[in-house]
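Researcher: For the annotation table, I need structure tokens for O-antigen ligase domain-containing protein. Please keep the output clean. Sequence:
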Amino acid sequence: MNFMIPLRPSAVLALFASLACGTFGVMLVHHYPVEPPLMLTLWAVVAALSFLGWQVLPMLLPAVVPLIGFAPWTGWISFEELDLLVLAVAAGGYMALAITEPTRRPVPWRYRALRWRSAVGVLLAVFTLSMLISIWRGVEHAGGLQLGYYQGYLESMNSLRLGKSLFLVLLLLPLWLRAADLRPAAVLRLSRGAWVLVLIFASMGAVWERFIYTGLLDFSTDYRTTSWFWEMHVGGAALDGCLALSMPMALLWMLCERRPWRFVAALGVMLLGFYACLTTFSRGVYLAVPVGLALCALLWAVQRRHGQSEDGVPAPGQLPGDAALPLRASIAVLTAVGVAAWVLFGAGGYRALVGLAASLGLWVAMPPRRGAWPVNQHRTFLSLALLIALGVAGVGAMLIGAVPKLSYAVALAVGLFTLSLCALWRQGVSRPGQSFLLATGWLSSLAATWLVAAQWSEGKDLIATGAVLLLAGLAWLALQWPVRPADAVREASWRVRGMLWTACLLVCGVVASLGGGGYIGHRLSTGQQDLEGRLHHWSLSLSLLKGMDAWLLGQGTGRFPASFANQGPFEERVGDHRWNSPSTDAVPGALDSAGFPAVNTPTVTLTSGLHTLGSGELYRLSQRVSAVGGDVAAAVVLRTRQKTQLRVEICEKHLLYPLRCLDRQVEVEPQGGAWQVVRLPLGKAPEDFGGSRWLPRQLTAAIALNWRGSLVELRSVDMADSQHGSLLRNGDFSQGMARWFFSSDRVHMPFHEKSLPLHVLFAQGVLGLGLWLGLVASALWRCTLGAARRHPLAPATAGALAAFMIVGLFDSLIDAPRVGFLFYAMLALALGLRTPSRRLKKGEQPDEEEALETRFAGDDHEHDDRRPSPPRRSYLPSRFGPSTGR
């Protein structure tokens, strides 16, 4: 690293940008609600790492976005950890640009893979101006800017909260561009890796949540996964949007991966993402993700075919001999698997499905036939294998009632035996005895699956399950019966077989979710009713736009909740809370914002909704607590001018859905608006309240009003138990709303437009919507039919944006700042992708260092160990000279 004095205009500008980001970042860290010194240390470490690795960290930053949201613990929503992270990365990165000289030269412009054209830059600049106008209008409609760290959705800071996502991405774009100019291939690998990590982290959160709160295989409970996205505390589809954006990138990784273990890892990530998609119970996700994946696969196939047509060698990500299965065969296999899974699941539950999946795995793992032997001998061995499998089923059926767990032992033994043979003879079957043993193992695995279903169902539906498995075995024998067996699956490459098995597992998962859970069936059956509700809500949202200026320029970013609260239907308005600063200089008789006499201590005004209230419809003011034990009680100091009903609770609750609760509800009389202390005993906590040590559940303390249209002013809230003492922090609100959070578990419509185009229209008007649609259309065009269609990331970016837009037809999405950041990051990447030049100019020779740094992004993959390396075609010059494509 070579240091320099910043004298060039670009270096001076980078220095000022670094100082500005550093100053603002330190100011935010100083007001962080939880352990500011520790946060300052972490922030400084990230800034230092960004200074040293500015070519890496900015591109990897989206990977951690699903993990860095701690609002339920901090109470911060106007600013959050994403802002701190972006400012730290920008401060370090711009400082490196200002005072250091890169050790390598930028590659020639024609080899650069990330560049925004002038027309795109102008369109992006005009849209940014529209966003600035929208933020200004939102602040003005809120009564002017009132800076605060703990404001809610109805105050002026909400406009800044929702508008800053775009500017956080714009802050990182120069770092992305500079890094791409120096090492384009590395940047492309980092981009793909970052989005795969987005999927992994979001899906792992969904798996953890299901495992702790419902069980992994429970699809009947009315529990929709939220993962790490606290923005769903008032509904929304933050997790849906994240999955839609990241799933195509994981599919692209799987399609392009050549190493076996990495390919298996990619398959695992895809299955993890599919499980997370299923647990959202979102019809939009069920439609959007398959469309996005199909578009990604289609564009990748077009790229591959285009590469073959030019020079006859495999395109990046394709192996020689990677013959795809015929479409009809694939459809037939998946259809047969779906029918078999449905029958087996109805009789044998999840255990039978696992047995079926294991049998399918043995089938796709069977090595191809490499030798020739007499046809009569071959058919005799196949018939003998079928008889042995029928014998295994018959003997097992007779002993299944006498020997506990016999079916599982038989399935395990047969599976291990057959899998060992497949691994031993993985190069191919050259002798009839080998073929006989493999056929016996495969057919016996079907018999073992039937035994599993029979033992689990205690002898019910034996004929149906036996028939479907016998048909599967006979269909396989029919393929092997001819003189020259034609089994396309066994002749396919290991990658094709791996993807087929993954598709079969997905079919089994869909069958399990549909057959084993009433909730997902209920969600699918109420689609028409929910669509009518959406149409009514959209019509209502459009009616809130008053005047020509609102239609042209929008009502302002972040103003929908306030507009709905002020102008929406009276019976649909929800609750709210607001922190009141102490009025130490108030004149005698002055009133606070709630109409009570002003006091010199901070208070919180809490209101309830005007809709029909129930346990799930309450507006809750909550705080996370670490542990609860023994006798629990609460004390609330409040005042009110009307009769109300106060509810206090401590629940095992991740975000929206409580499991077990300690709660108490009591009616409160006004007492002339005077302060009063309300004491509520909550009872004794169970011994396992909060889960076990290794599988803990989140504990959330909350206070709410269960009385329509009521208002109280809170001076302090205290909850304590007999083991730990006081459980709450900042119970007197002296630190603002630090550590306090809020949620509306079931009532969501007043907080969201429930449509992404409508959200942009409401915030930025017709002009802003036109610009936004222009950016999205430009990105999709570039990655499908335009200049970036041959870029290795183009299929995934196009699929991600298409899937996101489909989910956005039925939800706002970018009214969650972190999801907005991910969307604008993907949009900026798609707009900046370009296919590097394939050839050098006549007579031009790049030096060796330049050639190494500008190699095609697909060159980071290793060759298949079992096949010779084919001649590689590159969009960029190779190590030994220009690529001519011949």
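Researcher: And a one-line annotation?
Model: Residues 21 and 78 are 17 Å apart (CA to CA).
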